[in-house]
Amino acid sequence: MKLIGLTGGAGSGKSTVAGMFHELGATVLDADQAAHTVYEPGSLGFDLIEREFGPEYVHDDRVDRARLGELVFNDADARQRLNAIVHPLVREWMAARTADALIHGATVVVQDVPLLFENGLEGIYSAVVLVYVPEAVQLQRLVEGRGLSAARARSIIAAQMPIEEKRGRAQHVIDNSGSREETQAQVRKLWPLIAR
User: Fold this and answer.
1) 135 φ, ψ to 5°?
2) CATH 3.40.50.1860 for domain 2-195
3) Helix 44-53 with 65-72: angle, nearest 10 deg
4) How confident is the chain (196 residues) per 10-residue block, as mean pLDDT?
């Protein structure tokens, strides 16, 4: 089985590219989905987050993701405390789903991991694919596509490793600043190289 790391920056289009790999036959696992799953009500992650940050970060018996996100994108210490809770649980979730995919005959598993380089995970993958757009395009997509304020979008981008640094560390780069068709053509060209 080939284990491929897929990463990028906020607003770069990782989910779009992950979907294209799925269409080509990859099993795709999403670390963002894992992060939301591991602090669902009644989970260990939920209890740890409530204990660490207080009941004011829980609303209607769920973690108030918007309020917690506002805190951690503006406070590096709070971000580290949250990561210390969530990242081990996410890695456990991803490992269990990867093992399950292997048992069920998957030949290529793509793990969509936004903070792959930030967490020093590149060594576990056969290859790392970066979904790249220039920082100005990231900002535009976060503001226009997700409705974030420019200040919030900048703080999200600033909390991640610069996209140009990620570009220098990845084995493969998919430039997603053009049309969907252009991106898809790059993915199809890359697929035989990472899937064999």
Assistant:
1) -55, -35
2) no
3) 60
4) 96 96 97 92 94 94 91 90 94 95 96 93 96 96 93 89 96 97 98 93
